[in-house]
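[recover] target loaded
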């Protein structure tokens, strides 16, 4: 029997992604397998309530969540082209009317209520220092439950950040992601980066 993760990864393989990512936004899209793994880790912890995909890009995480049965999602990104890709991808799986898509800078995004869960693949902070931290600090304002992907080797930093804002930190998973040669400064056809998936929770 094919697992849920595998089923979702197969369904995500032909989605439309950005061909010319914006360098300053560090737009590295996850593969179908990587997105499925990430969202399955979310799904087994929480799968009901209102979710927010922060910096959603072309929607790989949102789409993986939908295919696993998470339907109440707000997808936020500053990039109009990426959101057009998301709308197209939603139409391919006949789910274009079930989520809210908002073009906005997540760091300036205001809500009058708490979201049940935020999930995100934020910038690593290599182009703008500490951008990953800024995304987390904003997420702490928006929700008490956050799943986020970061370069491996920084657990102590994120643990201290979590404690500063009253959150607990759980290392959910560690795996490799492949970065394709999508930026002008890339010298190799693909790079492999070890990443940690964290679960920040404030109960």
């Amino acid at each position: 029997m094919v697992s849920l993760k595998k089923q979702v990864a197969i369904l995500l393989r032909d989605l439309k992604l950005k061909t010319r990512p914006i360098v300053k936004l560090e737009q590295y899209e996850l593969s179908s397998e990587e997105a499925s793994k990430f969202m399955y880790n979310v799904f087994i912890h929480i799968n009901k309530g209102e979710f927010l995909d922060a910096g959603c890009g072309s929607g790989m995480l949102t789409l993986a969540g939908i295919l696993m049965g998470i339907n109440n999602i707000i997808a936020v990104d500053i990039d109009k082209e990426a959101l057009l890709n998301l709308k197209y991808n939603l139409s391919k799986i006949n789910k274009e009317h079930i989520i809210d898509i908002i073009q906005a800078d997540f760091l300036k995004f205001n809500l009058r209520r708490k979201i049940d869960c935020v999930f995100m693949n934020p910038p690593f902070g290599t182009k703008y220092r500490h951008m990953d931290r800024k995304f987390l600090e904003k997420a702490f304002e928006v929700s008490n439950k956050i799943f986020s992907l970061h370069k491996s080797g920084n657990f102590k930093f994120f643990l201290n950040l979590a404690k500063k804002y009253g959150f607990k930190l759980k290392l959910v998973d560690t795996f490799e992601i492949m970065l394709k040669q999508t930026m002008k400064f890339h010298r190799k056809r693909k790079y492999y980066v070890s990443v940690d998936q964290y679960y920040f929770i404030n109960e």
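[recover] notes: The chain has a mean pLDDT of 86.
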